[in-house]
Amino acid sequence: MSAVLSLDSVRQRSSQLNFVNQAFIDGRYCAAASGQTFDCVSPVDGRVLTQIARCDQADVDRAVAAAKRAFESGVWADLAPKARKKTLLAFADLMEKHADELALLETLDMGKPINDSLKVDIPLSINCVRWYAEAADKVYDEVAPTSPDVVAMLRREPVGVVAAIVPWNFPLLMASWKIGPALATGNSLILKPAEQSSLTAIRVAQLAAEAGIPDGVFQVVPGMGPEAGKALARHMDVDCVAFTGSGEVGKLLLKYSGETNMKRVWLECGGKTPHIVLADTADLHAAASAAAWGIFYNQGEVCNAGSRLLVEESIKDELVEKVMQVGKSIRFGDPLDPATQMGAIVDQDQFAKVLSYIGLGQEEGARLLMGGRKAFAETGGFYVEPTVFDGVRNDMRIAQEEIFGPVLSVLTFKDAEEAVKVGNATVYGLASAVWTRDINKAHKMARALRSGVVWVNCFDGGDITTPFGGYKQSGFGRDKSLHAMEKYTEMKTIWIQLH
Prior knowledge:
The protein is of the alpha/beta class. Helix content is about 40%, strand content about 20%.
């Protein structure tokens, strides 16, 4: 498909897809024990693609039992790291072989443009699995600097049964950020995809098995969060939960851990990124383009979206005009069209939420400069125009709460000190960005901003080698980089007295 990409070819290929819709437990696809399913609705046009197995406690119990059995048998955990590497590389190769299929599933399931699925999400997912496969036999344990009559070894050992609960905005990529390091370090993994976007997770389970990952080591239990997700988070034989999603659910996971077995919980819970542009910025066109794409990319459904544009007063009008020019130039429409750059909101509930925040912004007194309306209603899909609000105060709800849609709030500041103060004045701390030609300001502001990532004269930079995660209520623990492997291991000290 990717060789000759046209709307007709994409639609033809999508019509030939076979939607795998069952859970993958202990090496095979199976229906939910209850027999229940839920509709998989495409935001592209509102049609039901398939019915997916609705797993609950009984299915989770089976999956956890299989994961624990596999872990304790050592069939994966006790493999030499180079053997795990070989199998994970085979898994990545199979993902690459089926990249077109996975990209189509991603677009149909959550509404992102097909070009983004083909050229960003799926390649980055494959790269993530490959990178951690290669890291598996290159991370060393340590020997402590003790006296000559002692050998003290510091070992990293797999934590055991890991539950990965992932969001719908980057379905396979966010899953890969958990799959890669968790499997590379020898754990058994149970993946609970978001109910809005389960198709790629279900499909790659079979690819993992074909690659040689043993039964019980990689499983997928689709279903509702309050059913399958809660069952995993409260299960006494789950040793670790890795979660990306809302702060509301993140707090529930902490509660469930405390009420059960004190399982490790790692959270990435979104943000309200301040995108700060100072008057001395060298290239306002570049800053404006970054600001527009920082909120309109992936329909604004990005945890680190630059949803708050903080602009020094003297350049506000000029910069905002440039941002809107970029926003108006973005090709908005059918996600299956290779020319489309901004697609559909994931589902009806999120669609309604975004529109309600647009209405709320107007009620709060912000000035709507662009967009703000639903679009393409005739398709049956869920589309919201790129939207820009000016005159936003930082105490407004549209400036404080995560909308997760293509809605930009423009705020102003007088100097760098005020910009940092306003930038930090939310409960979140996932990411920040600063544009300035003054290297002193750049360093000082980057240190003062309370976020896990700070970009300078760019936005959303980074790759698999750099950690990603937040401060404050954006969570804790880091995805990506070698540091992510720490989440899925326990540190053991072995102290040997020599005689």
